Amino acid sequence: MYGKKVKLRFIFLTLVLISLILTVFLVLQSLKENVVYFQSPSEIKSLIELDKKRIRIGGMVKERSVFINSDEINFIITDFKNEINVSYSGVVPNLFAEGKGVVAEGFLKDKNYFSATKILAKHDENYMPPEVKEALGDK
Fold first, then answer.
1. pLDDT-derived band of residue 125, with 50, 70 and 90 as boundaries?
2. Contact between residue 37 and residue 57 where contact means Cβ atoms under 8 Å apart
3. Which of 8, 9, 42, 90 has its CA 20 to 30 A from that of 51?
4. Model-level pTM?
5. Which residues contact 109 (CB under 8 A, 6 or more apart)?
6. β-pairing, 113-120 with 83-88?
C-alpha cells in the first residue's frame, strides 16, 4: 500500500516521538524527587502526620529568640499565630536577624522542632517572598 519512503518516515517519526515522550517523563521524574515544599508554622501545626521529606519553613525570626552557641544557632520562626523552634549548624546569611523574614530548609523532628540544613535569605532587607507575605497575612 505505502511506499518504502513513507514507511521509513513513519518509523522515524514514531521513534522521535517515543524518544521525546521518554525524555520528558525522565526529566519530570527527576524533578519530582527534588521538589521542596514551603510551609508556615501554622500549616505545620495543623499537619495530621509528619512527613520525613525535606521541607521549607518560612516566617519571621521571633524577637529575642536567637541563641548562638559555638557550633549551632537556635531561633524561633513565627507567623504571628504559631511558632517553630529551629536548630541550624552553619553560616547564616548577612541579612539574618531578629524580626526579619527567613526561609529555612531541612527536616521536621516533630511539630515544634525543625532541624535546618540551609537558611535562605538571598534578598535585600525590604523584599519578602510572596509565599511568606501570603502566610503572614500581608503584615
1. low
2. no
3. 90
4. 0.67
5. 115
6. parallel
Spatial CB neighbours of 133, under 8 Å, sequence gap ≥ 6 = none
Q: What is the pLDDT of residues 95-119, one digit of tens each?
A: 888 888 899 999 998 889 999 999 9
| 114 closest CA partner among 62, 65, 60, 76 | 76
**Cα 58 → chain centroid:** 9
Provide the pLDDT for residue 116. 94
What value, to the nearest 5°, has the Cα angle with vertex 115 and ends 108 and 61? Answer: 100
Q: Give the three-class secondary structure for 19.
A: helix
Query: Within the chain, what is the greatest distance between any pair of CA atoms?
Result: 82
User: Do residues 60 and 102 lie in contact, with contact meaning Cβ atoms separated by under 8 Å?
Assistant: yes
- Secondary-structure class of domain 37-135 per CATH: mainly beta
Domain parsing of the chain, residue ranges: 1-35, 37-135
